[in-house]
Amino acid sequence: MKPRxxxxxxxxxxxALLCASGQAGAATLKFRPQGAEMLRLVQAAIATLxxxxxPVTLDTASGPILALGSSGAPFNPDVAARVVVVGTExxxxxxxxxxxxxxxxxxxELSRELGLTxxxxxxxxxxxxxxxxNGDGKIDLSDLALLMNNYGKTNATVGDLNQDRxxxxxDLRLFSSQYRP
Length: 181
Hints:
There is one protein chain. The chain has helices spanning 7-17, 36-47, 102-114, 121-128, 141-149, 169-178, and strands at residues 18-20, 27-30, 32-33, 56-59, 65-68, 81-86, 89-94. The protein is of the alpha/beta class. The chain folds into two domains: 7-128; 141-178, no CATH class. A hairpin with a 6-residue loop joins strand 1 and strand 2. The two termini are 34 Å apart. The relative contact order is 0.13. This is EF-hand domain-containing protein. Residues 132-154 form the EF-hand domain.
């Protein structure tokens, strides 16, 4: 599979996939699994990311379609998954006879989609908590610089960690709680 592009594009993709639930420290992932087996596998994968500090849930109303099998061309036997885009709809197809067990292929592909460095609660907390503002998989001083660049602004999208349409002390406190030097 080829790389998906620059950090800016990835941040837009994650923003489309990730919907803050209105409270800091919770995430809802938007994917549309097709079929009972795919739904079960997605729910099981997401459950492994779920923690008390970062509840992660699935919203199946929108987002990329996750399908077992092909909607068109046959799979290369060495490919576990592929992304097909038709118009504005993204479809992630998983090879049922691929080189990886389906659960592993699903976690690997969702890791790529979400920009996770690994499929773990710690990686999910870093990436999905909102404090990784530049999308590099780390919460560091470059993220703080982005937050401070918008500090005091209203209707800013970068740095508004608590989704209250302004970047202020509350966002700085949320960032501080997630930053580990």
